[in-house]
Amino acid sequence: MAVGGEPGDQGPPHESGGPGHGDLHGRCKAAGGAGIPGSVPPVRHLSATRPPPGPAPPRSSTLRGVLDALTHAENALLGERRPLTRAEVDAVAALSLDHLPDLIALAHRVRLAYCGPEVELESLINAKSGACPEDCAFCSQSARYATEVDVYPFLDLDEVLEAARATRAAGATQFCIVVAVRGPEERLLNRVIDAVKVVQDETGLEVACSLGLLRPEQAQRLAEAGVKRYNHNLEACREVFPRICTTHSYDDRVATARLAIDAGMELCCGGILGMGETLAQRIDFAFELAALEPCEVPINLLDPRPGTPLEDQTVLSPREALQAIALFRLVLPGAWLRLAGGRERVLGELQAMGLLAGANALIVGNYLTTTGRSPEEDHALLDALGMPVADGPGEGRFLVDADGAHARPAQPPRRPTIPVTST
Questions:
Q1: How many C-beta atoms lie closer than 10 Å to residue 85's C-beta?
Q2: In the prediction, which pLDDT does 365 show?
Q3: pLDDT above 70: residue 398
Q4: What is the 3-state secondary structure (H, E, C) of the chain?
Q5: Residue from 211, 247, 239, 124 nearest 176 by CA
Q6: What mean pLDDT comes out for the span 31-37?
Q7: Alpha carbon 369 to its chain's center
Q8: Of 165, 178, 231, 174, which Cα lies nearest the Cα of 30?
Q9: Model pTM score
Q10: Domains and CATH numbers, the chain
Q11: Mean pLDDT across the stretch 178-186?
Q12: Residues 87, 92, 98, CA angle at the centre, nearest 5°?
């Protein structure tokens, strides 16, 4: 279902209270990556004049209404230091996009208070590409669709190590090994674990993995091998998920996310925005993620792939994407929110606004099947914003406690930066 109109016109948000956030600072303190530049295809944005069917949610049209909703959210998050309820988030989401700058400013203050100004960098390697048996509607690596994606088995160790060294050279701290499978069979898992050990020994990078659905013993083996963080995205909220995948269930994904935590790994769990969901469903998604208490939440913005069922899906407008990023920050105040695939196409020249709207992590370089931009461009962007690069998981230059983020004076900055404050 294509999304039409401005986000505020996309159906009534729910009124129930949301889940708690557990530890307000998330399950980890820091992490990192790199890649290769390339071109970005032209953008088709959502029409601002084509509302979807169904009733529109109530809007706070007066200045007093705007100030009330935003002030209430700010008092809860920064004054009372408590998570927002669903009704409180809905009140903010109902504001007209004319007030998007006010929402972005609040999300940035929340990010600084809970996480500090650092930005975590990570890169990916598509270590086994294509021929996936699953039918995820957004994915060009599915064997069910006629796409032009490269198909190859798990890379040799020297190729994985070369990519890891490039990641380290680009100033990133985390390297994620990704394979296109439903879940790893024994031989593949053994090869991944071998690669994890080589990368750790040769580069010192923190290694994350994304290998699909896991069994308990597989999660335990990865944790024992030193995998720091496991990525397994929910992709969409429970209500939307059956429209984008039928070969496994939403609950299958939730189960693997919980297995990763139970095994002692940090959880990286997010998804893709712009697959036809409503604004209310985006908020559903944020609260469902918060219930898992992930350390990291990747925010992908759909860049439709030729040959997939979503190839004709109209992409989000930049304003819709920024609104979603800011709302995710309000729901997940202490998580790493990582701008990932699609940011170049959807946000374009407004990528800096994504970092001011609450995001505090980036995937740098190329993605799994699409081209990103150079790490140098992202470093220049961070320097221009005065946002320092995180030194590594648990080793950042800022400590976060109940009173907010505080500089760690004993650890000098990697490069000169303009201080970022919450005022």
A1: 17
A2: 59
A3: no
A4: CCCCCCHHHCCCCCCCCCCCCCCCCCCCCCCCCCCCECCCCCCCECCCCCCCCCCCCCCECCHHHHHHHHHHHHHHHHHCCCCCCHHHHHHHHCECHHHHHHHHHHHHHHHHHHHCCCEEEEEEEEEEECCECCCCCCCCCECCCCCCCCCECCCCHHHHHHHHHHHHHCCCCEEEEEECCCCCCHHHHHHHHHHHHHHHHHHCCEEEEECCCCCHHHHHHHHHCCCCEEECCCECCCCCHHHHCCCCCHHHHHHHHHHHHHCCCEEECCEEECCCCCHHHHHHHHHHHHHHCCCEEEEEECCCCCCCCCCCCCECCHHHHHHHHHHHHHHCCCCEEEECCCHHHHHHHHHHHHHHCCCCEEECCCCCCCCECCHHHHHHHHHHHCCCECCCCCCCCEEEECCEEEECCCCCCCCCCCCCCCC
A5: 124
A6: 33
A7: 17
A8: 174
A9: 0.79
A10: 21-38+60-396 (3.20.20.70)
A11: 94
A12: 155
List the one residue out of 382, 381, 422, 376 whose CA is nearest residue 403. 422
Locate tokens 């992908």: which residue? 300
- The two beta strands, 296-301 and 336-339, are parallel
pLDDT, tens only, 65-94: 667 999 999 999 999 999 999 999 999 999
Amino acid at 284: D
**C-alpha span between 303 and 316 (Å, rounded):** 9
CA-based nearest residue to 374, from 169, 229, 178, 207: 169
Q: How many CB atoms lie within 10 A of CB 42?
A: 5
pLDDT for 261 equals 97
CA–CA distance, 32 with 102 (Å, rounded to integer): 29
Q: 380, exposed or middle or buried, with CB in 10 Å at 0-12, 13-18, 19+?
A: exposed
Higher pLDDT, 341 or 45: 341
Cα 230 to Cα 212: distance, rounded to the nearest angstrom: 10
- Report the range of poorest mean pLDDT among 194-208, 234-248, 265-279, 373-387: 373-387
Q: What is the pLDDT of residues 128-143, one digit of tens each?
A: 999 899 999 999 889 8
pLDDT one-digit tens code per residue, 344-382: 999 999 999 999 999 999 988 555 544 556 778 888 889
Distance of CA 175 to the CA centre of its chain: 15
